[in-house]
Amino acid sequence: MSDDRSPSILLSFASLPDPGIDRSKLHHLGDIIFITLCAVLCGANDLVSVQKFGQARLNWLRRFLELPNGIPSHDTFGRVIAALDPHAFIDCFVCWVQSLARSSQRMFISIDGKTARASLDRAGSKGPLHVVSAWATQSRLVLGQVAVEEKSNEITAIPALLEMLELSGAVVSIDAMGCQKEIVAQVRAQGADYVVTVKANQEHLEEDIRQAFDRLDEGERSRGRLSVFQTEDKGHGREETRRYEALPVPRGLRNRGAWQDARSICRVIRLYKDREKECSEVRYFLSSLPAKAAQLAEVIRGHWGIENGLHWVLDMYFAEDRNRSRKDHAAENLALLRRWVISMLRNDTTLTGSIEKKRQQAGWNEVNLEKLLGI
User: Fold this and answer.
1) How many CB atoms lie within 10 A of CB 198?
2) Of 263, 306, 305, 318, which Cα lies nearest the Cα of 285?
3) What is the per-residue DSSP string for 282-322?
4) Is 97 exposed, middle or buried (0-12, 13-18, 19+ CB in 10 A)?
5) Of the residues 148, 183, 217, 285, which has the fewest C-beta atoms closer than 10 A?
6) What pTM does this model have?
7) pLDDT tens by residue, 143-188
8) What angle do CA 242, 134, 294 make, to 5 degrees?
9) What is the pLDDT of residue 2?
10) Rounded to whole angstroms, how far apart are CA atoms 209 and 246?
């Protein structure tokens, strides 16, 4: 380093193994990752842009990095990112994000997957990258990610993701793919509650929950134990009503004992207009939380927020769905870098505006970039 203002974020990468061969290395691993991170913060969405950022900001970067052979080529950036051990890289990220995620507030964590479609490699017989992420809904931080392995699915990735998280006291929401007895048991074993979406992938479960609410609608059982909460949203030409209904788990639920600590079922009726046409949608949920509709509504609405707060942002502003990096671990490691940057931007309080505006401000003004980096 050329002065004593070494960016503290570099410490996050201190334990990351360098995949390069010592005798042929021209660039430090920390330099490469720091330049890439800064470039993505400032709006770069591909490795050619990362190199151009480095060249444009060479004098600024030399205040913090040694850069013994200047700025690496985009091919070098690509080789290094592709060769990084993704498990070690995610460990670095988790250590960094855990320092931000501490809160006295009960944490809501959404687990959901996203496919980077352009990473499909037909010539190499490799499917597109599918990443399962953990999203802290209140702080809007990515807490971790696991890539779904070839010839596998989210059912195998979710347990691995849960293992890397501190869940004690949290509420974990998972979509229908994660509605598995073993997964909810793991959530409970790690000290958290769960809210899982129920569909037809579990024999009899959706049928039994639906019938419990149908009997209520038909007056075959008392509504005295029913908890109801309703929201209405209007804006941008959209009108939407959501009615949340919660009941204690019915005694007649088949395989009830196999769902660890299940306490409530929930029905969400969504009424909305699509091009002036009245539409409706019904979803069902199973939870270890008590049958309190308002509490369940908070978790369920938060889970739906991962689409706008993370997945939409990745595609709209970071062009993830169009990124064609495919070599070795490149797609997975770049996916993590994007989520790292989103977490940094969400956590920042020094700049104002959307994710896009913050990236622009960082790219236009090095003082703003230093604020984001905590320098």
Assistant:
1) 21
2) 263
3) EEEEEESS-S-HHHHHHHHHHHHHHIIIIIHHHHHTT-GGG
4) buried
5) 217
6) 0.85
7) 999 988 654 678 889 999 999 999 999 999 999 999 999 999 999 9
8) 30
9) 47
10) 11
Q: Which two tokens stand for residue 36?
A: 């890439």
Q: 78: closest CA among 51, 47, 103? A: 47
| 148 close to 157: Cβ distance less than 8 angstroms | yes
Q: What is the DSSP string of 42-75?
A: TT--SHHHHHHHHHHTHHHHTTT---TT-SPPHH
Residue 20 identity (one-letter amino acid) = G
Distance CA 371, CA 7 (A): 11
Q: How confident is the model at residue 307 (pLDDT cuts 50, 70, 90)?
A: confident
Instruction: State whether the Cα torsion 85-86-87-88 is positive or negative.
Output: positive
Backbone angles phi, psi at 319, to 5 degrees: 50, 35
Q: Are strands 108-116 and 171-174 parallel, antiparallel or unpaired?
A: parallel
CA 10/CA 33 separation, integer angstroms: 9
Q: What is the spatial distance between Cα 252 and Cα 74, in angstroms, rounded to a whole number?
A: 61
Q: How far apart are CA 146 and CA 165, in angstroms?
A: 12
Whether the predicted pLDDT of 1 surpasses 80: no
pLDDT at 272: 86
**373: which 2 tokens?**
């980096």
* Sequence letter at residue 236: H
CA angle 312, 314, 320 (to 5 degrees): 120
The total number of residues written for the chain in this structure? 375
Lookup: tokens for 172: 């974990």
Strands (E), 201-237: 227-235
